[in-house]
Amino acid sequence: MRRQLTIHGLVLSLAIAVNGVRAGSFETMAWYEIESRGLSGLGQRVFEQGKGQWIHARSDHFICHAGSIARIDEVLARAEYAYGRMSELLGLPDLQGRGHVFVIESREEWDRVMREAGAREEGIAVHVGRDMFVLRGAGEASVSILDVPHEMVHYRLHNAPHFRLPLWLEEGLALRFGWRVAKMYREKEGYQLTHEQPALGAEELISMRELLEAERYPGTQAEMRAFYRESSELVHAVWDNLTPDQFRAWIQATGSKGLNWAEALKTMFAFEDKDITAMLQRVEGRAVQSITE
User: Fold this and answer.
1) What's the pTM?
2) Superfamily of domain 9-158
3) Sorting pLDDT into bands at 50, 70 and 90, what band is 13?
4) Most exposed among 119, 150, 180, 255, judged by the fewest C-beta atoms under 10 Å?
């Protein structure tokens, strides 16, 4: 029987580690075994502050620092799964060496991390270079289904050499593919994940020009909601008009070659102006609807 779970459902850690080593998943290590020279300034500070208290473990692509084996098991499993799926979906090459994942359980320390990272205070995951920080504490388990997959999109894109996407496209990918990978992860555990997206009012929409030309996030919560929703819907519209291979090629052309997103669609796949207009109209039409996926 398939179990139903919304994005606000309880996150369960079902695996068990024995004697600090778990084949095929992660291996614990002492703090003095860790090569810390590649850490960001923030990562170095957090590492030094917690190295005497945390358990450290490595997997294929990450070294995780957390307060318990259970946290490591949960977070590393999600991180490795998201890393692999994002590589496939986005067509990005493997990164050399391991990144770091810090699991922060103190709200005071988390607020400090977010300030030092220059991130929005409501976030529950952030990365700086090859260092990822995730919040786990009282009240955070109910939303942590999406945090690692979402942040992994930003992590993979920002660490791809000579690669840059417009803000709306990067955030749309993080929202759309973060959700997609979270859903895939839970389905393999026997859960069916659903995502409820409330409708925006027509007066809340930001114009397509504002969306496409944005170089920084909007200033108000209402504008942020519209920006997120419309970015996600536009990525969804492009995805629905391409095969997975074509979508990866389009991302590569837009990110590494600097092509305008619409011009890339026209040049590579014979889209016409009317096709681009139809996708933009679809975005505005879906954004004012309440949608459950």
Assistant:
1) 0.88
2) Collagenase ColT, N-terminal domain (3.40.30.160)
3) very low
4) 119
